Structure formats: structure tokens, C-alpha cells
């Protein structure tokens, strides 16, 4: 296991290392990340934690990646959980911050004697057998808001299909929430969500996308794309997410919606996001309160709402969509579709 004295923002490689926020660290925090250092959402969570800790002079943080997004098999997750538990035992932290659901499912449920802050939780927290040692921050994407935005951009829109990968702890939870919101969404926008697809195959994803395009028998007004990170090829190997995105952006002729920054950045039309930075910031604040003497189970469950409206102007122009000036005045915009860049797959 490597030990590096660097800033948290600079964490981009490796599976586990130590970050020293101050020279004389007295409180030890184990930062358990469900995924890997290439996953932008988690790195923004880590940046939020760094913001919370920036004025602290007595904190040491060890970061450990489980790498379960790129390796989604149950067997790998179980083994990653065992390795994380061993690392925690060796480090003997004063507190754990755990990012996203896999850390909770495969590690935190088994820990009852160390204070923990979990954030980025997509599932109902009742699913996990948390002890009184755990404080909770939820991740709830604003699907109703992004579909309202879709209606504002495309007033004639009537139907929408949802496509995501089959990671149960994120995509599964998102589909459950979308289905619960669907009646109110239809009532308020007139848009009917006609299908929900949780799929594991890249080939099936390609077939579905093509089947919904204009002129096809089951054509829809738009697509809501959630996760694209665990599609497998014909050999059972996970297809890199940027390869999936590139294929999609090159071929999709429909308005496409997302709830992550990378959607419009890479070339999708629009997103309304929750903020990974806000998740991490609140987790860091809770950690400091617990280290200051408060009990984790006395802290209320949080659902941070801070986020942004994102629009891709190049995609809007390609689709012939005129964006209302009132949206342009409040949105974060992108002038190009990055996935169409010849060097897109070569960049991190």
C-alpha cells in the first residue's frame, strides 16, 4: 500500500493511499470509496470533503478505493469488502467516511464500534443494517426537474424512455424512484414514461437506442440516460464508459437527458444534477461534528439539493432546439459535444 503526502484534489491514481491535511495529524479518518479514482462523481465528493476539512490542523485521511464500478461482479465486491475491512482494522481510524452504496453493503453494515458517515446513498437506508454509529446522507437525483426541463425545451414532447445499466444499488434504486414519480410527472408535464430498461449488455443497449429513434415503430420524444458504466461485451468484459458514451452521442438523434455533469459535457442535451461536492461537504461537516463529540445517530438524515441546470448548446443546435433566454441565464452551458472529439477516448 502506497503512502503519499498530497492534496485530496490531486488524487487521480492508485487504489489506496494516505492524505495528510496537516503535519501533526491527531484524528484519523478512513475514507472508503466504493468506486475508483476515474469516477468523476466520487472525486467531486472527495473534493467536498477536502473543503470541509480545509481549516483543520489535526486530521489525517487515508483513502481506499473498492473499485466496484469497473468490477461489478458479486464475487469481486465481496472480496473488495474483505480487503477494506482488513485495511480499516490495520489503520484503526477514529472515524470512517463511506462513499456510495457498495461501501455500505459490503463493509459498513459489519462495523458497529467506529463512528461512520455514509453519503451518496441511493437505496432506502433501511436496506442496510446500520448501527447507531452511522450518520446518513442520501443521494436523490431530481428526475422530476430534468423532465420538466425537457418539456420546457421541447414543448411538443409526449413520451420518454429510460435506459440505464443494471447496477442494482444505483440504477435499480433510481428506477424505483422514477416509477414512484411518474404519475406526478405525467400530470404536471404531460410526458409519459413509456419504458424502463435496466440492462447489462452493450449490444442490447445499442439495439434499444436504435429502436427508439425517429421513424421507428416505437419512437419516443426523448431518452433519459442514467448509468452507462457496467455494460458488458459479448465476452463478458465491461465496456469502458467513454466508449459507450461515444457510440451513443454519435448515433442518437433524440433529445437526451441525464442527471450527471458528464451527460451534457460529453454531448447530451440537458441535465439537472445533484452535487457530489455538496454530498462530500456535508459528510465532512458531519465528520467534524462527530469528532467534536456529537453522536452519529442524533444527526438528521440529510438530502442535499444543491445542483445545477446543464445544457449542451451544440446538441441543441443540432436538434434545432431554441433554448429560452430565461434558461440560458441560469444554466451552466457547454459549447461542444466532447464525445465527438477524435481524441475523446484517449483522455481520462
Structure description:
The chain has 348 residues and is an alpha/beta fold. It folds into two domains: 8-140 and 275-298, Response regulator (Rossmann fold, 3-Layer(aba) Sandwich), CATH 3.40.50.2300; 143-273 and 308-346, Response regulator (Rossmann fold). Helix content is 36%, strand content 19%. It contains eleven helices and 13 strands. The protein has a seven-stranded mixed beta sheet, sandwiched between helices. Strands 1-3-2-4-5-6 form a six-stranded mixed beta sheet, sandwiched between helices. Helix 1 (40-53) packs parallel to helix 9 (276-291), helix 4 (143-153) packs across helix 5 and helix 6 runs parallel beside helix 7. The chain starts with 15 loop residues before the first strand and ends in a 14-residue tail after the last strand.
Distance between the termini: 23 Å
Overall CATH architecture of the largest domain: 3-Layer(aba) Sandwich
CATH class category name of the largest domain = Alpha Beta
Count of DSSP H/I helices: 11
Strand order of the largest sheet: 8-7-9-10-11-12-13
Main sheet? 7 strands, mixed
Instruction: Predict the CATH topology of the largest domain.
Output: Rossmann fold
CATH superfamily (homologous) name of the largest domain: Response regulator
Computed structural class: alpha/beta
- The multimeric state of the shown protein is single chain
* Extended strand count: 13
Question: Which features would summarize this protein structure in a list?
Answer:
about 350 residues; alpha/beta; Rossmann fold; seven-stranded mixed sheet; six-stranded mixed sheet; 11 helices; about 35% helix; globular; disordered N terminus
Amino acid at each position: 500500500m502506497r503512502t503519499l503526502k498530497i492534496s485530496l484534489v490531486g488524487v487521480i491514481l492508485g487504489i489506496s493511499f494516505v492524505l495528510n491535511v496537516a503535519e501533526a495529524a491527531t484524528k484519523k479518518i478512513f475514507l472508503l470509496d466504493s468506486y475508483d479514482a476515474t469516477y468523476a462523481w466520487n472525486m467531486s465528493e472527495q473534493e467536498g470533503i477536502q473543503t470541509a476539512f480545509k481549516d483543520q490542523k489535526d486530521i489525517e485521511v487515508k483513502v481506499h478505493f473498492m473499485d466496484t464500478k469497473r468490477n461489478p461482479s458479486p464475487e469481486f465486491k465481496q472480496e473488495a469488502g474483505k480487503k477494506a475491512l482488513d485495511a480499516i482494522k490495520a489503520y484503526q481510524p477514529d472515524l470512517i467516511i463511506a462513499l456510495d452504496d457498495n461501501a455500505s453493503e459490503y463493509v459498513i453494515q459489519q462495523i458497529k464500534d467506529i463512528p461512520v458517515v455514509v453519503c451518496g446513498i441511493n437505496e432506502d437506508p433501511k436496506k442496510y443494517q446500520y448501527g447507531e454509529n452511522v450518520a446518513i446522507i442520501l443521494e436523490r437525483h431530481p428526475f422530476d426537474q430534468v423532465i420538466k426541463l425537457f418539456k420546457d425545451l421541447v414543448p411538443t414532447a409526449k413520451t420518454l424512455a429510460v435506459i440505464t445499466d443494471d447496477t442494482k444499488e444505483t440504477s435499480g434504486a433510481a428506477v424505483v424512484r422514477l416509477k414512484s414519480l411518474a404519475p406526478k410527472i405525467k400530470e404536471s408535464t404531460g410526458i409519459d414514461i413509456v419504458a424502463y430498461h435496466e440492462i447489462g449488455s452493450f449490444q442490447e443497449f445499442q439495439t434499444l437506442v436504435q429502436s427508439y429513434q425517429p421513424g421507428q415503430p416505437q419512437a419516443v420524444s426523448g431518452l433519459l440516460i442514467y448509468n452507462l458504466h457496467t455494460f458488458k461485451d459479448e465476452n463478458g468484459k465491461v465496456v469502458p464508459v467513454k466508449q459507450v458514451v461515444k457510440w451513443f452521442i454519435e448515433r442518437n438523434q433524440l433529445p437526451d437527458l441525464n442527471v450527471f455533469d458528464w451527460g451534457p459535457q460529453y454531448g447530451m442535451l440537458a441535465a439537472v444534477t445533484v452535487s457530489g461536492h455538496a454530498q462530500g461537504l456535508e459528510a465532512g461537516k458531519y465528520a467534524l461534528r462527530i469528532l467534536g463529540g456529537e453522536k452519529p445517530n442524533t444527526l438528521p438524515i440529510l438530502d442535499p439539493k444543491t445542483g445545477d441546470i446543464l445544457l449542451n448548446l451544440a446538441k441543441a443546435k443540432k436538434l434545432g432546439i431554441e433554448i429560452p433566454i430565461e434558461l440560458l441565464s441560469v444554466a451552466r452551458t457547454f459549447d461542444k459535444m466532447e464525445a465527438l472529439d477524435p481524441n475523446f477516448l484517449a483522455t481520462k
